[in-house]
Design brief:
By secondary structure, this protein is α+β, with helices and mostly antiparallel strands. The protein has helices at 6-15, 19-28, 71-84, 94-99, 101-113; strands at residues 38-43, 46-52, 57-62, 88-93, 133-135.
């Protein structure tokens, strides 16, 4: 059996979004934060939960599976790939998004407003469910790019 094309897969992922994804999308869509976001955006072999190409920012929402078994290792590989593509990656737990959406939006705005923000400064030593984490590309993003 062959893999569906990226557009078909992205549509499937959007149709099956989690409550946290739906909650955050309601606040990111239509440039409500002043930046255009895409949902389930393919970047290389991965689909990102949310992506702002202008700010080179990826937002990932993590459920329990991200903290169990091979989840952390897979996420690290995925983040490394996205960093190589010059994207910064920030992560929030699903529960954090549902419990305190406003705080999540404030954290996202910090990264949107400062494209050179050293995301590593915000990354906890060992993330736990519900905490935001962030990473940045190996090379600095010289300037914001248009979609």
């Amino acid at each position: 059996m062959h893999e569906p094309n990226p557009t078909t897969r992205a549509r499937e992922l959007r149709r099956n979004s989690t409550d946290a994804e739906a909650c955050l999308w309601a606040r990111l869509r239509n440039k409500q934060l002043g930046f255009k976001f895409r949902r389930q955006c393919p970047i290389g072999p991965y689909f990102t939960d949310f992506c702002c190409k202008t700010a080179r920012l990826v937002i990932e929402l993590d459920g329990e599976q991200h903290y169990l078994g091979q989840g952390p290792q897979y996420d690290a590989q995925r983040t490394a790939y996205l960093n190589q593509q010059e994207y910064r990656v920030i992560r929030f737990g699903n529960q954090q998004v549902l419990a305190d959406t406003e705080a999540v939006l404030r954290e996202i705005l910090v990264f949107l407003e400062d494209p050179h923000r050293l995301a590593k400064e915000c990354e906890p030593a060992s993330p736990t469910p519900g905490e935001a984490t962030a990473s940045r590309p190996a090379s600095d993003v010289a300037r914001m790019r248009n979609d």
